[in-house]
UniProtKB/TrEMBL annotation:
SUPFAM superfamilies per UniProt: P-loop containing nucleoside triphosphate hydrolases
Entries under InterPro entries matching the protein: Gliding_Motility_GTPase, P-loop_NTPase, Small_GTPase_ARF/SAR
Organism: Hydrogenobacter hydrogenophilus
Designated name of the protein: Signal recognition particle receptor subunit beta, a GTPase
Keyword Endoplasmic reticulum listed: no
A molecular function (GO) term: GTP binding
Keywords, alphabetical: GTP-binding, Nucleotide-binding
Upper classification of the organism: Bacteria, Pseudomonadati, Aquificota, Aquificia, Aquificales
Amino acid sequence: MRELRILYHGLGMAGKTTNLEKLKEIYKDRVYDRIHQQTAEGRTVYLDLLMLKFHTCVQGVDVIVSLFTTPGQKRFKVLRPWLFGHTSSVVFVFDSSRDIQENMESFYEIKDIISINRIVVQANKRDVPNAVPLEIIKETFNSMPVIPAVAKDGIGVLETLKEAIKTALKNEEGAVRSS
């Protein structure tokens, strides 16, 4: 059994857990495990985990894709370096409803820990009025794949996961772990 670990990171309420919830719906017959605690306001407490089991051709074995989210609240910042250091790839969930500087402060947390070639950017909340223009997001993250999304509607969620898996497998030696 092999495992890919993909971490979803971004500001609080950016849509990280929403991505996992939509993936749980899409892959309901492949859910291996789900751990999620949240506050009454819908904020993630500690972390969120969704494990999906796939059969794939990665060295001819089954692969479990573990999807984690970081809690967006600043009080959990101390936990993030450990989570970042144990991942195959990272999905940075850019909240298009908030200004670019606020998003970049969250991005800078991973910039020096994770190689840029292991990061996928999801430009979420593309449906909100006055969303940060997609062209600006693409320019800002010009060396990384940028996937437009409306996670609450499932738009761009599957495309983001596929890109994150592809990104993880590009650097298979550090990305795939034996369980």
